[in-house]
## 1
Amino acid sequence: MTDPLAATVTVKPPRWQRRITRNPLAILGALLIGSFLFIVALAPFIAPYRAETQNLRTTYVPPGLGWSLRGPDNQLGLWVSEATRSPVGGVSVNEAEQYPVRLFVRGQSYTWLFGLIRSDVHLFGVDGPVRFHLLGTDEQGRDLFSRIVYGAWISLFIGLISVGIGVGIGAPVGAISGFYGGWLDLVIQRVIDTMLAFPGILLAIVLVATFGTGLTNLMIAVGIAAIPIYARILRGSVMAIKNREFIEAAGALGRPKFSTLFRHVLPNAMAPLIVQSSLQMAIAILFAAGLGFLGLGARPPQPEWGLMLARGREYLAVAPHVATFPGLAIILVVLGFNLLGDSLRDALDPRSK
Amino acid sequence: MLQYTIRRLLVAIPSILGVLIIVFAMVRLAPGDPAVLLAGEFADAETVERMRERFGLNERIEVQFVRFLGGVVQGDLGRSTRTNRLVTDDLRQFFPNTLELALAAIIFALIFGIGLGVAAALYRNTWIDAFAMILALIGVSMPVFWFGLLAILYFSVDLGWFPVAGRGTFMHLVLPAITLGVSSTGIIARMTRSSMLEILSQDYIRTARAKGSPGRTVVFKHALRNGLIPVITVSGLEFGSLMAGAVITETVFTWPGIGRMLVQSILSRDYPSVQGAVLLIAISFIFINLFVDLIYGFVDPRIRYD
């Protein structure tokens, strides 16, 4: 016999959670970001080679060249032959020798988890003396797939640092500005206005131009460009919340203003901040790639996606794959953060149906 | 209206002052002797001293700022350390090209963005809506330089329809304008959709339908005209950002605009040119926003009385 009370005590997940899990776009976004994080976490295992390993005999090999679905004795599987480029004659494939592509193959050794784990097993690779380039190779014969996999970490790092700077400085400034008001608010708003007078990417460019190019300065610059946006958002939501009755109640009960801000106002102002952070990850990754493309960000041989695209630009007509795949990687990740941000906004916004 | 205009103009002043301060600070905060930065890395000692004298770099910071302001007001931004041309001459030459590109891009973005947005709103929750919004989202998520490169590869290199780079005929303008406008198209489409959806659920739309107005009149005359008001703001903001976004597009298509000038100047540490380009882009961004606010107050009288 079933317990008659059991049915009545099922706990429903919160409404925003149900909204998220029922939205196919949210799921797509979460999947994209999930795979991105998975790739970042397991980069040395997923990438068959190191990002810097060159081979000047195999430059600009397009993906698919020398691949075959049948082996020497007609076995099914993925088989590769060595494709080499000679200075004059273009690419030639040595079809006489075929080697199988397998999962969990031993290859270049790597350390993982800050040196805690040493291994040489990769997700996939060739069982033999040739190399398998899933997405082809670049101008120095480096494996494009491995470079993109290692580059994912750089993109994530850029996004996190930039959002961290934006939230870390912009949010408190905006919260204080909105909560205390008065002359402090006025002064802060003028500074924010000035920063907003620069379109985001120009502000980042100005900062890089001033303090020098390079990945570190780039991350700081993109982060600073995000400060006014966070300050605006938090000021707005704090101002909306601080006049509500429960804040008044906290004041009436004798809670100091500063503590009210932290205990009651900020927790209720978090939703727009979370949404913006997802969208800001997307913006930061796009900005960073753009600046990398312009030569103002990462420097060779760093496997930063924008920089890889810039290199690919020079060989666009010969080897379009070099520019195509890093661009696709950027789109997928940025799309993921945008989808996630959008769905979070829809789910957390109490007005939307 | 006049009062509103004056108030908006006054609000722009601190922003302009802020931009001037930031551009002024750039050279002073950059590592190295500002006099050397302004004279160029390879300048001789005499030129460096002349710069020090001219911009008063030995004097107190407020004196330096006043001199800098004086220079800006008189249209004297120094000489490029790379080409030795007057920075103002370069700006005069390149700025119209950027304006041309940005205008073409915003026109493209308005046509396709509003079209996509209206279609999505009218066919809400159908595959048309889903398709339009996914397209818009991809437009927003795409690195412009990647789109530009692929466009060059397919339409210029493979098909030979458009020139690969440079400026000149209308055909030169097509690919850069689309490339620059893609992201704005997405933003405008999303804005148009949400604004149209809100308007279409209003009582006066129901009234218009109830009194028997044809669907087309309701959509285009009653809904779209009101629905476009927020779109104007977004488009204005977008147009302003396009001036800055042109930095990347111009580099991809070697378009002789102010954005490309900025990148080249940064890469060759040509500080007078960097200052000039940043100043012009930021100030035009402020003025475009100001202009948009004024239009906004004009088309939506409610705004003026806030």
## 2
Amino acid sequence: MRTFGLPEFLFILQAAQWTIALSLIAFAGGAIGGLVIALARTSGNRTAQLLSGGFIQIFQGTPLLLQLFLVFFGAPVLGFDINPWLAAGVALVLNSSAFLGEIWRGCIQAVPAGQTEAAHALNLSYSARLRDVVLPQAFKIALAPTVGYMVQIIKGTSLAAIIGFAEITRAGQIINNATFQPLIVFSVVAAIYFVLCWPLSLLAARMERRHAAALSR
Amino acid sequence: MNYTFQFGDVFAAWPLLLRGTWNTIELSLLAMLFGLLLAIACAWGKTAGPRPLRFVINAYIELIRNTPFLVQLFFFFFALPVLGLRWSAYTAALTAMVINLGAYATEIIRAGIESIPKGQIEAGLALNLKRHEIFRFVILKPALKAIYPALTSQFILLMLSSAVVSAISADDLTSVAANLQSQTFRSFEIYIVVAGIYLLLALAFSALFRLIYRTSLNYPDRR
């Protein structure tokens, strides 16, 4: 039987690249989807509001694990070839679109209405109002919660282990099955996640404090 | 797309699904109750406790909030028995949920406690209330009211993330779904139905929390 040593540790550590890659995909895709959702929610168009509201309700009201299963088992039914990579990517992008969309909707609405009204009065077009007036201000508000949400994305990628995607948690399971040393294996797994997530958490908290200090002046 | 949806096998298994749904509700309610108590204790320790205690509570919060729930679950279920702790998947799952929720809820409740104006506590002291009475009536209740929306959405997130405990077969709704899936191969149909049940549960819990607010926290205050 194998014992836990340097090769086992490196095996788990190497799997971190897949966790990071999956997190980046989820964040990049989620940012695009989230922006669309947030703009639809704040657009004033009833159909767009209903659709985006329904999307958020569905993805925030069901477990991420079930969304992962539905993509993984549902795609073949709809005639798509799918592997754990793609399934995890699609499910995480959809899920983070809903959460980032809801976070950014709040940030857009936190920009005082007078700003939009003033932009209206200056006869700016919809795109100019967003690009030059509302979004730059919303961006500042959104920075801290967005960094905070990145921690949630990294943690969420661990669920991809359940459908067999070899990221950190799955690598830990594989090593645990070979060594039967769960205490050390899962401590190492947890430690790697902690090293990935904690700096982001600290950064988010720091940004939040700075933003609060900027507002109180 | 030439796939015929067959929900027959899924609906035929309704007693199993009902049982799984009940287990998920029970797990979630127990975890909410114990998690809330743990969080209140930790929030009290963090705002009023001695330095070493504050350090331990902070370490606990950071550790839990920066690692995935699935890994915590594996740690409780696979790693702790090595140290001699024998427990079932259900108990391990419940413990992991309580510990997880406790960390998130501590931060939420602490924010609530810190939002209580100092004058209110001094007023409590002036009325000769004892320390625990001040905490219970002057600090905790208005604090819970102030952070009620954040706390209850954390509760619902916990209920949803409880689907993860199926990874150790803790008999919850998702475990039932996974078993049915391996017996009938109707995976897509099963997971659609089960996702629908979770959605209904999320709506039901938020309705319950609104009801609790209206019946016990809806008193006028100055805010």
